[in-house]
Amino acid sequence: MTRRVEGLNLLVPEERLEIHPEDAVRLGVADGDTVRVTSRRGEVEVRVSVGKKCRPGMVFMTFHFAEALATS
Q: What digits encode the pLDDT tens for the residues 12-31?
């Protein structure tokens, strides 16, 4: 439901894969790159957001962009 709030859409207009800078360097990806994320449930292509919100070895995606990406 929060996707209906215009201000939030301005702050976060699309799904992003959050990744720690150490992992980004190790994997050779940069902020804004597009990567393919694969799990037992399927795969999606998404832009990378490099930062320290996630610990090294972990990544994070929301489930708020179901119309664009099936992340659940």
A: 767 889 999 999 999 999 99
Return the closest-CA partner of residue 48 out of 8, 11, 9, 21: 21
Name 55's Cβ contacts closer than 8 Å, sequence gap at least 6.
20
- Does the pTM exceed 0.85? no
What's the order of all strands across the beta sheet hosting 34-39?
Answer: 34-39, 42-50, 16-19, 59-60
Cα–Cα distance measured from residue 46 to residue 36, given in angstroms and rounded to the nearest whole number: 6
Contact predicate 24/59, CB 8 Å: no
